[in-house]
Design brief:
The structure holds two protein chains of two kinds. Chain A is mainly α. Chain A contains four helices and no strands. Classes of the chains: A mainly alpha, B mainly alpha.
Chain lengths: 106, 562
């Protein structure tokens, strides 16, 4: 088989640099939303029926829905705090042109 | 309804189903949102190389923490107890640190878009093509097996027929990947990671409640059939099924800890792809190392429920006491489902079902999203139809995703006809990793290694593994399946290295200038290191510090739980 430069083009040529890829939505908000909704539902279920004997028999005596629900609400809130304190910053045009420290040329 | 069906069927109520539905609404929403950001094939197939390290790191372990892995590892926890931690602490952590510290500078630095493309850059076209075809076929097959197992679980737990469950699951995966490409797959994997934890942690808490805490569990296991052997990680003879304790330890350390795990974690493109999508060299190097921290800890919430199941689930306890394969249609693989039913009240049950379904789909999505990259770049662009516009390849990527999902559905239905065949094929494909790792390491550290030697070494190493497997299954070698796979992997590694070395000596190596950035000794240190400014600054972002930290954590865990 042949190898070397005459065989070497295309593979290395990257697609044109993306202009929008970095402008993705913030995943942390989605995680916060998931935990928020799950947390509310589980907390309510824990308050309403968490201490039923049938549930207590399953979980060995802890109100699992309530405990998990509250934990999820706390985690959801932490993600919200993270998003607020460190908002996603859009890259500047220079960073777009030279996105990272990959060695130039290869 | 048979006895086993009756024992397994969960009773989700409306709220459980709503929680599951909400998860899938979010996943499809991610697909739509990610679609807006796709303008090139690189965006679609490699997330435009824009991901922060915490996202790629969590996706890195999530892609592996599929449902087959979860179900299998809870089963291992039930069957073997503490020795199953070796699959994580020896079988993953060192290899993940090695990938981040040693290999990632070459993968990411070479700008290769896939593992086969890296093989082209270091070796030649033939090696790239051999590896890309093997990988493409294996990905579809494993995606199909995932889909089939998902169908089985939906059928057993919720009573959905296989003919409905398989296409529905495939359409959801297809939906978010065709829309959002790798970004959607990676985002979904991160979400799945959190939902899986929301399944495992309450399961562990309730399980420990039921057996009287960790001390109660230890007492019950000591009084149980293993007589307490399940509580120590070494020498792990039941796990390896090698009676001699010294050989058993050697089997675990070299077979599992070196050849199998390094082969899997450092060369499997479904994993490496997550790191290649990171936004900088530093983030790419941190990806597997950040993933290693949760990987080291998550085993605890898998092991403990597994051990609990052998105490409180009557069928599992009976299997363990008598050593039979099944009791009333129940096997170790049902341990997780039975625990969900036994321990979780409605509400958290819905979260758990969402987590399990998410894990199956993520397993399939990881295979499909790496399959479409290898097919589009390595098979289509570099081989069959080179030189067309990027827009064209983006289109190919989307079409290949659809074709991949359809093929996976086909494979899933074949698997439902003959599950033994699928098990066998799947184990065969796992043999390709060990020789691949052999030629990677040789190629990375030995500049004399040539192109032809790579694919010849790859194929002969694989042949050696297949030969060992045939000898074990036909009974010529009296080894257990587990010991057989360790020996097979070691044989593949040794033969692959030896043949590649021999062929290299009789063929012409490439010029040194072509191998800069691909071979350790020819790559200047500056190129191997990365920027430490801006978002890559700070000692806590140093891959070496993080890598050392996770190795220390693992050692401490071994001391505490081993």
């Amino acid at each position: 088989m042949s190898q070397g430069p005459e065989d070497a083009p295309k593979a290395g040529t990257d697609a044109p640099p993306s202009t929008t890829a970095s402008a993705l939505f913030d995943l942390r908000n989605v995680i916060a939303l998931l935990f928020g909704v799950y947390g509310i539902v589980l907390t309510i279920m824990g308050i309403v029926s968490g201490n039923d004997p049938a549930n207590m028999a399953k979980t060995g005596g802890s109100n699992l829905n309530l405990e998990t629900g509250i934990a999820m609400l706390i985690i959801g809130a932490l993600f919200v705090v993270w998003v607020r304190t460190r908002p996603l910053k859009l890259p500047t045009p220079e960073e777009m042109a030279e996105p990272d420290d990959r060695p130039a040329g290869h | 309804m048979t006895l086993a069906q009756d024992a397994l069927r969960l009773n989700p109520n409306v709220i459980d189903y709503l929680l599951v539905a909400f998860y899938f609404v979010l996943v499809l929403g991610i697909g739509f949102a990610a679609r807006r950001s796709i303008s090139s094939s690189l965006d679609f197939l490699l997330s435009g190389r824009s991901m922060p390290a915490w996202i790629t790191g969590l996706a890195f372990i999530s892609a592996n923490l599929g449902a087959i892995e979860l179900i299998g590892m809870v089963a291992n926890g039930a069957q073997y107890g503490v020795p199953m931690v070796h699959y994580y602490w020896l079988g993953a952590i060192p290899a993940m640190v090695f990938l981040g510290l040693v290999m990632m500078p070459f993968y990411y630095g070479s700008k290769a878009r896939s593992v086969p493309e890296f093989l082209f850059k270091r070796f030649n076209r033939t090696t790239q093509r051999v590896q890309s075809v093997i990988f493409a076929v294996a990905s579809i097959l494993i995606a199909g097996v995932n889909l089939f197992s998902l169908g089985l679980v939906l059928e057993a737990l919720l009573g959905w027929p296989l003919q409905v469950a398989i296409p529905v699951a495939a359409v959801i995966v297809l939906g978010y990947i065709t829309l959002g490409g790798l970004s959607a797959a990676i985002y979904t994997e991160v979400l799945q990671f959190f939902v899986i934890l929301a399944l495992l942690i309450p399961l562990t808490i309730a399980g420990l409640n039921r057996v009287g805490g960790w001390d109660g569990l230890k007492a019950a296991v000591t009084a149980g059939p293993s007589g307490g052997a399940d509580l120590s990680a070494w020498p792990g003879t039941p796990l390896t099924e090698i009676d001699n304790p010294v050989l058993s330890v050697l089997g675990i350390v070299f077979g599992l800890g070196f050849v199998l795990s390094f082969g899997y974690w450092t060369t499997n493109f479904a994993e490496v792809q997550r790191a290649l999508s990171a936004k900088s060299m530093s983030a790419a190097r941190r990806t597997p190392i950040i993933g290693a921290f949760p990987k080291a800890l998550v085993v605890l919430v898998i092991l403990i429920p597994g051990m609990v199941s052998a105490v409180i689930i009557p069928q599992i306890a009976e299997i363990k006491a008598t050593g039979v394969d099944e009791v009333g249609g129940i096997t170790y693989n049902n341990a997780l489902s039975l625990l969900l039913k036994e321990l979780l009240p409605n509400g958290i049950l819905g979260v758990a079902i969402a987590g399990l379904l998410a894990a199956f789909m993520a397993g399939m999505a990881a295979n499909i999203s790496s399959f479409n990259t290898v097919f589009t770049y390595d098979i289509w662009q570099d081989w069959i139809k080179p030189g067309l516009t990027d827009r064209y390849y983006l289109q190919v990527g989307r079409i290949v995703t659809i074709v991949g999902c359809v093929l996976a559905i086909g494979t899933a239905f074949i698997a439902s006809g003959s599950s033994n065949l699928m098990d066998y094929l799947q184990s065969l494909f796992s043999f390709f990793n060990a020789p691949l790792f052999a030629i990677f390491i040789l190629g990375l550290f030995w500049k004399r290694m040539t192109g032809p030697s790579a694919w010849i070494g790859l194929l002969s190493g694989t042949a050696a593994a297949v030969a060992v497997n045939v000898l074990v299954t036909t009974g010529v070698f009296a080894l257990s399946d587990q010991a057989g796979s360790f020996v097979g992997a070691i044989a593949a590694f040794v033969v692959g290295t030896a043949v590649a070395g021999a062929v290299s000596l009789v063929s012409t190596p490439r010029a040194d200038a072509e191998l800069v950035g691909l071979v350790w000794s020819l790559t200047p240190k500056e190129t191997r290191t990365h920027s430490t400014e801006g978002e890559d600054s700070g000692w806590y972002r140093s891959p070496a510090v993080l890598g050392g930290g996770v190795l220390v954590l693992t050692a401490v865990l071994y001391v505490v739980f081993g």
